[in-house]
Write a structure and sequence with these properties.
globular, binds zinc ion, alpha/beta, two-stranded antiparallel ribbon, nine-stranded mixed sheet, 47% helix
């Protein structure tokens, strides 16, 4: 995404007006020459040529470069050495990536609207968004900037934060973004400091203090006054504060007493000017990637950038000095609790890798932090330019996912529905809860055919644990030591013989193998695995065998659809079937945080969820205790629904009675998953597509390993024969079995009928029926017992 240069220039000329007023004159949009004329004074010319040695800094002239060369290379920051990686004898890690706690969101900002492919490039209606992933504001900014020039929708955005640090980031930056009279250039620089820099310069702090300090103090008074007349027990009640600038960016923040106090105290506390070096070093030692790994997979410039970040945590061009940054950023410097864990890991993962690396023109080509800083400033400037064209309304809430239905009851009660819901990778952690909290809030396809719920799979595409997948992984491990495919031999020949303990020398080769892993195939095995995604439903204690996965059946009215908003495999260096990444691409990918493959799934809502059903599932997922709390909140929900139903029935009795009954039947059927799906809803096209890929991959695997498979097949046939004999002896169920097979085929071909009682392997007899021998035998058991 490239903001149009014309708009950008227009905005910077405005910025110059502000300069002439003598306000906020320190911000600039070009990179400063990295040479220091004297120990106190940096050359103020614009940098145009990159340092030939490191490409991390740039200079205005050859002269400056020559003068500085000794200095800047001598002043490289000594790295901290966290523990070396140790591998036990014979141990081969499942994947080569360093996995560790990170404070930052571990997937990039995403265009959750994609108007061109959905509502249209000229859309100017209303759109409501609910964003639940960490630091959700970035998606809003990114989406608005990515919007086609011709589109002009009214956006109403709800942002949920689940951590006080991210909440402070969001709150402070919204306050600054909504200042419509300040210079956009300066606002952009401040916002980037709020988001990322561990410490602020005096200039940053006084800008914030001047423009929003008093607002925060007033808000504090307002909140104290409101809760003063309340009981201790009423502190759980939320107070909503309205902030921002009308006709530009307005936002309200709805929090309980404790969260309000934590949030405002962060800013209002006296900043302690103590050193952060110790706590940062501790964090690096605990969570940082060990240096022996870093040296194997990072280029030397990337290593230098990482070391600088670990030390000072200031997001700025590499050549600039951090010495003026002395005031702790309240977002990361919590009262009494120290730094949030994993904060010294790189924040680069919050934005798209390709866009930051490709940001230009930027003279210091390898300076990722400088690029990111400029990339973000430019994005913020463009975002504010859009606000002038069309205001945005935002709502900020803070709660856990499980508290969402209790936190915003009015949304569930009044059906204030959303056109996009970004769930992020909460789907990995508790998929069923995601559906429960979000599916009722998604707008029905009947109202907006493009309404989409977005869920991200990171862990879930990696955690495959079935026989076929294990076999593939074993093969991959053999390739580490012995001959594999030509590209791999060329880029990273084996560095160790089999039998030697795994060492970091194997990392580059392991990483290429990891990239080349057929992720579609692997993710299918996980996403269509009934054991993982076959949810139990209310009343089901322990099902005899897992249910069909929700990726096939849908859940609470939500059904998986073809991706139209987000690329399925967005940010990773993803191989196409014949893709050949270069060594440079590989190194970039290998040195980017959160390199794990991630896959976006999209869902639409094909049927509304009744209040009764919602509460029933809520109880099932959340427990009776929670339900009791919610029942008071949603008490009249059921009653109102009954009434509404009665009214409708009275009104429409004469019109289309039959049709209505029919539709009602279908809805119920869809709930129980035991009849035909509502008309016009073919079974999940994405599943079909993925299945085709799965079949393709299976075919390839089969050819590779024919002998073994043949053997297996023979064994299976033998087994089958014995079983059929047994079956015949039990003289029953044969017909039923045939019927079921027919249904399986129908499902694969996307027939509109959903098979009765959804047998677990509706996907493909050839492939997924073999997913798990266990399941098969349990089904046989069931079969036998009927
Ligand atoms: Zn250099
Ligand atoms: Zn210079």
């Amino acid at each position: 995404m490239d903001p149009k240069d014309a708009d950008y220039d227009a905005d910077s000329s405005q910025a110059e007006d502000s300069y002439s007023k003598g306000e906020e004159c320190e911000s600039r949009l070009d990179l400063c020459c990295a040479a220091w004329r004297t120990p106190e004074q940096q050359c103020e010319n614009t940098a145009i040529i990159s340092c030939k040695k490191c490409r991390l800094v740039a200079y205005c002239s050859n002269e400056c470069m020559a003068n500085d060369l000794k200095d800047h290379h001598a002043s490289r920051i000594p790295p901290w050495y966290p523990r070396r990686t140790k591998y036990e004898d014979g141990e081969v890690p499942d994947h080569p990536l360093w996995e560790s706690t990170t404070f930052w969101a571990n997937y990039p900002a995403t265009d959750v609207l994609n108007l061109a492919k959905n509502e249209g490039s000229e859309y100017n209606g209303c759109l409501r968004l609910l964003l639940l992933g960490p630091f959700a504001l970035r998606h809003v900014i990114y989406s608005v900037v990515a919007m086609p020039e011709t589109a002009n929708p009214s956006l109403d955005v709800t942002l949920r934060e689940n951590s006080i640090c991210h909440l402070v980031r969001t709150f402070l930056s919204l306050l600054i973004l909504s200042l419509d009279t300040v210079n956009s250039l300066a606002a952009a620089e401040i916002v980037v400091d709020v988001w990322y820099s561990a410490k602020w310069s005096d200039w940053t702090y006084s800008f914030i203090e001047k423009h929003v300090g008093q607002k925060i103090r007033n808000l504090y008074q307002e909140i104290q006054a409101w809760y003063k007349v309340k009981d201790e027990s009423e502190r759980k009640l939320c107070y909503t504060a309205s902030l921002g600038t009308p006709d530009y960016l307005t936002f309200d923040v709805c929090l309980d007493w404790h969260t309000w106090t934590d949030l405002l105290d962060c800013y209002l506390q006296e900043p302690e000017l103590r050193s952060m070096v110790g706590p940062r070093a501790k964090d690096v030692i605990k969570w940082g990637e060990p240096l022996d790994r870093v040296f194997r997979t990072f280029s030397s410039s990337r290593t230098a950038a990482l070391m600088k970040w670990r030390l000072d945590g200031i997001m700025q061009p590499h050549g600039e000095s951090a010495s003026g940054y002395t005031i702790p950023n309240p977002a990361f410097y919590l009262l009494g609790t120290g730094l949030p864990e994993g904060i010294t890991n790189e924040p680069l993962s919050e934005w798209p890798m390709k866009e930051i690396l490709g940001y230009g023109p930027y003279p210091a080509e390898d300076d990722v932090y400088g690029k990111m800083n400029f990339y973000l400033r430019r994005m913020v400037i463009f975002f504010r330019a859009r606000l002038k064209k069309k205001p945005i309304t935002a709502h900020v809430i803070a709660c856990g996912l499980k508290d969402l239905p209790g936190h915003i009851p009015m949304y569930y009660k009044d059906s204030r529905l959303y056109d996009r819901i970004e769930v992020g990778n909460w789907f990995d952690i508790y998929a069923q809860l995601c559906f429960l909290a979000c599916a009722p809030l998604l707008r029905n396809v009947g109202e907006n055919p493009y309404a989409t719920m977005l869920t991200l799979c990171r862990q879930s595409v990696i955690q495959v644990k079935d026989e076929e997948a294990e076999k593939q992984l074993e093969l991959e491990k053999q390739y580490l030591y012995g001959p594999a495919f030509p590209l791999l031999e060329k880029l990273a020949p084996p560095r160790q013989a089999a039998g030697e303990p795994y060492s970091t020398a194997l990392l580059p080769r392991h990483m290429i193998l990891f990239i080349y892993r057929n992720w579609s195939w692997f993710s299918c095995r996980s996403l269509f695995n009934p054991k993982i995604y076959g949810f139990t439903l209310p009343g089901e204690k322990k099902p005899q065998h897992p249910r069909a996965p929700v990726t096939v059946t849908g859940y609470l009215g939500a059904q998986m659809k073809q991706n139209t908003v987000v690329d399925g495999w967005g940010n990773t260096l993803w191989h196409s079937e014949d893709g050949k990444p270069t060594m440079e691409e590989l190194m970039r990918w290998a040195s980017w945080p959160a390199g794990k493959p991630q896959c976006w799934l999209e869902w639409r809502k094909v049927r509304d969820v009744t209040a009764g059903e919602f509460l029933e599932h809520l109880e099932w997922v959340q427990g009776t205790q929670t339900l009791r709390i919610f029942k008071t909140l949603y008490g009249d929900l059921g009653a109102r629904e009954e009434e509404k139903k009665r009214e409708e029935e009275n009104g429409e009795r004469n019109v289309g009675d039959e049709e209505k009954n029919e539709r009602k039947g279908e809805d119920e059927a869809a709930v129980n998953g035991d009849k035909s799906a509502p008309e016009g809803m073919p079974l999940n096209p994405l599943a079909k597509k993925m299945l085709m890929r799965l079949n393709f991959a299976m075919e390839a695997a089969r050819q590779q390993d024919k002998a073994a498979l043949e053997e297996e097949k023979a064994a299976r046939e033998e087994e089958k024969a014995t079983r059929e004999e047994e079956q015949a002896e039990r003289n029953g169920g044969d017909e039923e079995k045939d019927e079921r097979n027919g249904e399986d085929e129908a499902a694969v071909n996307g027939d509109e009928s959903v098979p009765r009682r959804m047998p677990m392997n509706t996907l493909s007899k050839e492939t997924l029926m073999r997913l798990s021998m266990e399941m098969k035998s349990s089904r046989e058991d069931e079969h036998g017992s009927t």
